[in-house]
Here is the input.
Amino acid sequence: MKITNTPLDGFVIIEPRCYQDERGFFLESFQAERYRDAGIMDDFVQDNQSRSRNRILRGMHFQVLRPQAQMVTVMRGRVFDVGVDLRPDSPTFGQVFGIELSDSGGPRQVYMAPGFAHGFCVLSEWADLHYKCSRNYDSNDEGGVCWNDPALAIDWPLDRPIVSDRDSEFPMLKDLEPAGLPHNPPVEIRS
Here is the structure.
């Protein structure tokens, strides 16, 4: 497994070892001990899957009071995947990193620490994404920042994406109150 750091601390690219031959491929998309050895210490508690068609843009989403670490894998298709650092005390607050992920050319995943907003746009006919999350999703704790916020200047690689009304109505980063940003995750003590 290869880990590549990005300019945003807490947002890394993971290339799992993949065994390929004429029959296809096999890879372990997650193995707790190996990922812990690589510094990913989160306990993942929920897996999600989404399917979206060409030109769909989803984002930029986050959880406010109970931010989630996420690990994203494209199971089918090709997407441009984006993270925005919204951790108030981070030296890279408000900075963006985007990367193309696909089901070909060697599998890659992205890992985002708690406190990132996440979004993607679909570049293939269809795309299936798998997310591992460190906290359960709570629709009452949902936050977002507008996908086309000029201050973020995300370089989406398509014209006229299809965006839901909800995602289009998220506020600009400058309009988010501190209470609307992801909070530092509470310390959980296990007995």
About this structure: Helices lie at 32-37, 165-168. The chain has a mean pLDDT of 92. Residues 69 and 113 are 4 Å apart (CA to CA).
